[in-house]
TrEMBL record:
Protein name in UniProt: DegT/DnrJ/EryC1/StrS family aminotransferase
Annotated InterPro entries: DegT/StrS_aminotransferase, PyrdxlP-dep_Trfase, PyrdxlP-dep_Trfase_major, PyrdxlP-dep_Trfase_small
SUPFAM superfamilies recorded: PLP-dependent transferases
Entry annotated with the keyword Cytoplasm: no
GO molecular function: transaminase activity
Amino acid sequence: MTSRIFRGSFTQQEPIPEEAIEAAVAVMRSGRLHRYNLTSGEHGETALLEREFADWQGSKYCLAMASGGQAIQTGLRAAGVGDGDKVLTNAFTLAPVPGAIAAVGGLPVLVEIDENLRLDVEDLDRKAAESGARTLLLSHMRGHLCDMDAVMAVAESRGFQVIEDCAHTMGARWKGTKSGNYGVAACFSTQTYKHMNSGEGGFLTSDDPDLMARATILSGSYMFYDRHGAGPDEKHFEAARYQMPNQSARMDALRAAILRPQLRLLEENIARWNTLYNTVADGLKKSPAIVVPRRPQEEDMVGSSIQFRVPALDVAGCRTLIRRCSDHGVQLKWFGDREPSGFTSDHASWRYFEAQTLPRTDAVLSTLFDMRLPLTFSPQDCTLIADIIVENADLVRT
Ligand SMILES: *Cc1c(COP(=O)(O)O)cnc(C)c1O
């Protein structure tokens, strides 16, 4: 029995790289923080970031935005989703996902998840047929990519478009193809707890020039859409510039300046996250009581957080496990709590649309625990964290 206590913080990020701080200071010295406030011949940090992110992602177009949630809203609207339209989405995701659907007047149709936290493809097929929805907002929640071939086959047969929420899968791949390159558009977040940190921020990517022209006008480009780093040709704006309402959701030069050096570090950081993830996962697998989601061979993950289930626990047992882990410095999130505390991922708490019955998802969430793995943790920290969880999960059971 370890009496050791973990002293780290699950919400402590690494500092912003020095190079990024210097770039930010240079922007502040210039006074030109608005993305379109450029001198002649100057490209500006935001446009440069768009070009670099599009190249890194392997998409034709990229629009930098004020947040991941704004990227989703804008993507949905640019893809034609409007008042009263049904939108299929994961029953287990973060609040900005159903929130974005509601913000464009859409009606979420929640699809079950399976034990491995991926969308249940059979339920997707059934609900697509029942609802007639023309759009799936696929949330790669907590980085668990589903069988993308199976999802895209259902999309093809049922005739709906796919928009990907890659807030947790920036850099992840399915069979070598980056997440975000399957659907008509993809949304990324650069909010503090994601894979790059600008406080707030996001990207919308796509290969569709008309969709991206609509998105650019929606984002609030005024008449400066020619000042974008990875935007479509001017001819695609002819209709969009008169038809799309400005929603002012631009990214400024300051955030772009601190993101560009972080993009250059992303691949290295992904490898670091995966080391942390594998260390915790290997530790947790020592307990017969704990089930870690299966990671399919086809997936290249980004292990920036870890989830596990303790299926034998009842509600009281889950609470005891949380308390004991917390006494040892390990803060667990538990998605089974009916009164959401510290999370906004329970479909029952999204009361601005009609409640839906999701027995499979509820059963999975009832014993599902979750932890962030910030890069300030060392592999040794991760070994200790896993030991603490394993010992306490075994204690709770006996
Ligand atoms: C963080 C997050 C988003 C976007 O969030 P913002 O805070 O608006 O950038 C979208 N989907 C999921 C699953 C997320 O976790």
